[in-house]
Amino acid sequence: MNFRKKLSVEVLNKVSDNKETILNTIYTKPQLYLLVLLRVIIGYHFLFEGINKLFSASWSSEGFLVQSNWIFSNLFKFIASSPTLLAVADFLNIWGQILIGLGLLVGLFSKYAAYAGALLLLLYYVAYPPFVEGYTFVDRNLLEFFGLLMIALFQTSQIIGLDGLISKIRSEKNG
């Protein structure tokens, strides 16, 4: 067992044995609660947007892709011009947002959900950045992008989330 994996197992054992110990060594309670709140709020936003798109009969990513005006705009416009590629992009967008949102909301595979969400937001940003029209370079996509990177790097789902519950059940099952 390599050092990093051994350290992770030791941290998980501490979490399941004594949550106060792990809280005091990794995060203060306010830090933990704010990171969890950030994860839940962004998760809710992704879930809401995905479900909203799913139940909106007229929603398509075509309008957004056609307006692309920065690097890769030719690729985005090509996707919009192909009914098959557009259907794939719409499917991936809707279900990606729903699954990312659920993962973040309940703390299940939240590290992967955060990275997937960050990638999706980066694609949104690259397709239609605010600074091309003369505005500042910061928009909600960029803010959520960095929020998701923080969630991915500062894991809380092992402490408050289904990831931690699953780890605890696995460690009890394995002895």
Provide an overview of this structure.
The longest helix has 26 residues, at 29-54. This protein is globular. The protein has one domain (12-173). Residues 3-8 and 15-24 have low confidence and may be disordered. It has helices at residues 3-17, 19-26, 29-54, 62-66, 73-81, 83-106, 110-127, 140-153, 162-173. With 175 residues, it is an all-alpha fold. The protein is 75% helix and 0% strand.
Which descriptors apply to this entry?
175 residues, mainly alpha, 9 helices, disordered N terminus
Helices, strands, pairings?
Blueprint: H1 3-17, H2 19-26, H3 29-54, H4 62-66, H5 73-81, H6 83-106, H7 110-127, H8 140-153, H9 162-173
Helix pairs in contact: 1-2, 1-9, 3-6, 3-8, 6-7, 7-8
User: How many domains comprise the coordinates?
Assistant: 1
Number of strands: 0
Rounded to an integer, what's the Rg over CA atoms?
19 Å
Number of helices: 9
Q: How much of the sequence is in beta strands?
A: under 5%
Distance between the termini: 17 Å
Order of helices and strands: HHHHHHHHH
Morphology: globular
- Low-confidence parts: 3-8, 15-24
Helix percentage: over 70%
Mean pLDDT: 86
- Which structural class is indicated by helix and strand composition? mainly alpha
Please summarize what this structure is:
The protein is mostly helical. The protein has helices at 3-17, 19-26, 29-54, 62-66, 73-81, 83-106, 110-127, 140-153, 162-173.
